[in-house]
């Protein structure tokens, strides 16, 4: 036969189960004591964060003030430098203007000099030609002639000029020998003869070789040998 449970008193259950243990107050006090340092640390950490945030804000404000002052000083310095550069550039422009004016004056003087040279060079060449021809005609032996310049003032001995090839009328460059004697004139080949003739008579048409040599002798001051 099954065993029937004995009745339980609720008053006993309340006393044994719901009633706190006799050392509950001590337990709670110990728990509070254990958690108090952690809570204090958290509170201190929060205060430290707030203090750091305040300090950071002050530092940022100081940095902003410093940067503002630095920008103002830098702006003043750049403004001063720009003024100095403008003054220097103005002075340089003035100097270049003065130089341009001086160069303009020099150009005018050179233009006048060029005009004088345009007159003097032909006169000097003509005078030199006359003196050399006179020297060859009256004071030099046939084997000791002086060099006579071309009408443009060029001294021909050893110069390379435009001559004529031995075949046809094709022109070529030729080196002119020294005409230090009458025999040197007669010894000229055809290109050399044409080269000398064109030098002494630039505006005349080229005749025969024999006629060219006679005219060359006249040009260097030997009219008697040209007959």
TrEMBL record:
Domain Mug135-like C-terminal: 144-222
Pfam families, alphabetized: Mug135_C
UniProt-listed InterPro entries: Mug135-like_C
Family: Belongs to the UPF0612 family.
Name this protein carries in UniProt: Mug135-like C-terminal domain-containing protein
UniProt organism field: Dichomitus squalens
């Amino acid at each position: 036969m099954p065993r029937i449970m004995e009745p339980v008193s609720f008053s006993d259950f309340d006393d044994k189960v719901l009633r706190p243990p006799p050392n509950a107050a001590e337990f709670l006090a110990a728990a509070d004591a254990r958690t108090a340092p952690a809570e204090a640390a958290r509170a201190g950490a929060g205060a430290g964060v707030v203090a750091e945030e305040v300090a950071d804000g002050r530092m940022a404000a100081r940095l902003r003030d410093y940067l503002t002052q630095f920008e103002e000083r830098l702006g003043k310095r750049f403004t001063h430098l720009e003024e100095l550069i403008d003054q220097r550039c103005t002075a340089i422009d003035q100097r270049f203007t003065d130089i341009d004016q001086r160069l303009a004056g020099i150009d005018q003087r050179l233009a006048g000099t060029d005009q004088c040279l345009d007159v003097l060079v032909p006169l000097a060449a003509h005078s030199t030609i006359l003196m050399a021809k006179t020297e060859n005609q009256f004071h030099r032996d046939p084997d000791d002639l002086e060099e006579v310049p071309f009408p443009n003032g060029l001294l021909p001995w050893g110069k390379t000029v435009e001559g004529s090839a031995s075949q046809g009328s094709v022109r070529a460059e030729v080196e002119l020998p020294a005409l230090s004697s009458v025999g040197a004139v007669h010894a000229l080949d055809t290109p050399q003869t044409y080269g000398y003739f064109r030098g002494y008579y630039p505006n005349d048409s080229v005749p025969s070789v024999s006629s060219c040599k006679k005219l060359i002798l006249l040009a260097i001051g030997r009219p008697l040998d040209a007959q």
